[in-house]
Amino acid sequence: MIAQHPALSRNEISAVVQEALRVTPVIDMHTHLFMPSLGTLGLWGIDQLLTYHYLEAELFRSCKVTPEQYWELSLREKADLIWRTLFVVNTPISEATRGVVAVLDAFGLRTDVPDLSEAREFFESRDLHSHIRHVFKLAGVSEVVMTNDPLDEMEGRLWQRGVERDPQFHSVLRLDRILNQASDKSTLEVRRFLSIWIDRMKPVYMAVSLPDSFQYPEQSIRGQMLQEAVLPACRESRLPLSLMIGVRYQANPRLRLAGDAVGRADLSSIERLCVAWPDNRFLVSILSRENQHELCVYARKFSNLMPFGCWWFLNNPSIVEEITRERLEMLGTSFIPQHSDARVLEQVIYKWRNTRRTLAPILTNAYQLLIDDGGAVAAADIERDITRLFRTNFEEMVNSGP
Q1: Measured distance between the N- and C-terminal CA atoms of the chain, rounded to whole angstroms
Q2: How far apart are CA 112 and CA 101, in angstroms?
Q3: Domain ranges of the chain
Q4: Tell me: the pLDDT tens digits for 11-56?
Q5: What are phi and psi of 169, to 5 degrees?
Q6: In the prediction, which pLDDT does 328 show?
Q7: Residue 47 · residue 124 · CB < 8 Å
């Protein structure tokens, strides 16, 4: 890129990158958050933060309480146990525990206390609508994308009654139960179902989590539904399909949601999808670290493929740094570096703080290398690139038609 504005010196790069990261609002393109009109589906507050399944898995490694004993506790009792175990008895230096500390600190709450009375009093005093705006402001998030399951009995009923839209929340039509728990319904019935719910939800994309054993094509009900219902519906409705691949479901069922594990996937299925459906767009995130380079290679070959995020077991700064450097080196800025995957509202605060903190030295190094090799970089170039990573790559992916 030929700089159209005054070129920065090597020593000026870091400050400009950090400021651009700070002021550029992000579109959080995959979360499990819900707009207020979807009621109690939306999780928030200290007890929900502490009983997040990342922390539950860590709890069982740090105390003698069994999963069976833990599940018998009330929400508050679970939160109290996790606080005592992971924050009082032990030092909260893991990624998940440190995130809770960061959230409390963002609200000016003490983090070195023996109990949760102050935090509970604070969150119980909050009005949800104003609290959401405050959280998004603290996180530097302008909009979030939900995960909406029409086959969830409670959620489906709310959508059917009609829900009040919130411009900061975008819907996504989740397909896990349709594909992974597929029945013997005809593909024609599924096509009709998808058409009804696309019209009702107005989703920005469709999405499904898939096991590491996923293949395309495959001789199964899931394979038939994908081939004959989902992919044609995506093409006709001009919606991308988000594939999150690599989950090994319930490796330890005693841990419930925390019991899933990770497996390496065969990404040749991505190649076959992109070849067979060139007019479809695919957002793809892979759970296994070992698959990341292969995903980048496929993204270089297919412009209808958009790698995004570092989710679940990958969402640790050391691994995020490795994956993001690799993507920059192979794809430039033509990818989506992160999404929060937040299940509890306040998690967006620490997850996006971490993302900005991790991205700053990566981008700084990339621009400094360009200068070292004789290139020129202006502040406007950096601002454009970060806007692309945080916003426009996603906007163009969901707004462009075949």
Answers
A1: 28
A2: 9
A3: 28-42+140-343, 46-124
A4: 999 999 999 999 999 999 999 999 999 999 999 999 999 999 999 9
A5: -125, 125
A6: 98
A7: no
CA distances for 370 relative to 13, 28, 282, 298, 363, angstroms = 11, 29, 31, 25, 11
Residue 190: Cβ-neighbour burial (10 angstroms; 0-12, 13-18, 19+): buried
- Which of 264, 317, 333 has the alpha carbon at shortest distance from 295? 264
For domain 28-42+140-343, give the fold.
Answer: TIM Barrel (3.20.20)
Q: Is the dihedral angle over the CA atoms 36, 37, 39, 41 positive or is it negative?
A: negative
Contact 213, 263 (CB under 8 A): yes
Helices 347-372 and 128-139, axial angle in degrees (round to 10): 20
Beta bridge partners, 292, equal none
- Residue located via tokens 């009792």: 77
Asked whether residue 172 carries a pLDDT value surpassing 60, the answer given is: yes
Q: What is the pLDDT of residues 66-80, one digit of tens each?
A: 999 999 999 999 999
Report the candidate in 357, 349, 325, 335 with the shortest Cα–Cα distance to residue 18: 357
247 phi and psi, to 5 degrees? Answer: -80, 130
Look at residue 3 and tell me whether its pLDDT is greater than 70.
no
* Pairwise CA distance, residues 402 & 390, whole Å: 23
Homologous superfamily (CATH) of 46-124 is uronate isomerase, domain 2, chain A (1.10.2020.10)
Per-residue pLDDT reduced to its tens digit, 206-219: 999 999 999 999 99
Instruction: For residue 324, give both structure tokens.
Output: 């993001």
H or E element: which one contains 210? Answer: strand 206-211
pLDDT-based confidence at 186, cuts 50/70/90? confident
